[in-house]
Amino acid sequence: xxxxxxxxxxxxxxxxxxxxxxxxxxxxxxxxxxxxxxxxxxxxxxxxxxxxxxxxxxxxxxxxxxxxxxxxxxxxxxxxxxxxxxxxxxxxxxxxxxxxxxxxxxxxxxxxxxxxxxxxxxxxxxxxxxxxxxxxxxxxxxxxxxxxxxxxxxxxxxxxxxxxxxxxxxxxxxxxxxxxxxxxxxxxxxxxxxxxxxxxxxxxxxxxxxxxxxxxx
Length: 217
What we know:
Layout lengths: L1 H21 L1 H12 L13 H23 L6 H20 L3 H25 L3 H5 L8 H28 L2 H28 L18
Helix pairs in contact: 1-2, 1-3, 1-8, 2-3, 3-4, 4-5, 5-7, 7-8
């Protein structure tokens, strides 16, 4: 379910934007029908419709997922609440002011929150976040663990900067493509690199069902 919370809103955002960008008149009709109370000024134009409609959809999907998780008794950790808060506040600002700059800051906000979590978690909890996430399944020396933690901090900080560079340098179409494929691709490459490094320090689980070496009674 956590994986759905991470990726489903992004998929809906991407699909809505691309469809509305390819059918701008229909997109404007839908945007004016469903978002009119959330947008200031006059009618939404076909040029504005793709990003505003996608923003409305990502807010709705995020809130629905949160409600479903609560109804199923699942705990929403602080990072999920931060995600919901950032999406809702910046998304509503995007709609009301008809300015995509707010929603373009959303990925950067998430990345920088993650960087702060990795940076400050040990100071406030007394535990290294990576060690906690791996559940003790590693013999990684403490010095190396700290280096990997700093690598995560640097990665998230730089991803936040990269998102803003793409957002302010290129068109909405390119930014949406980067948000969908570039961010996920870079994250995948980084995670694979960390996994290769960590694999040399992982503890091997005891073989299940291994025959006993003790004599039979």
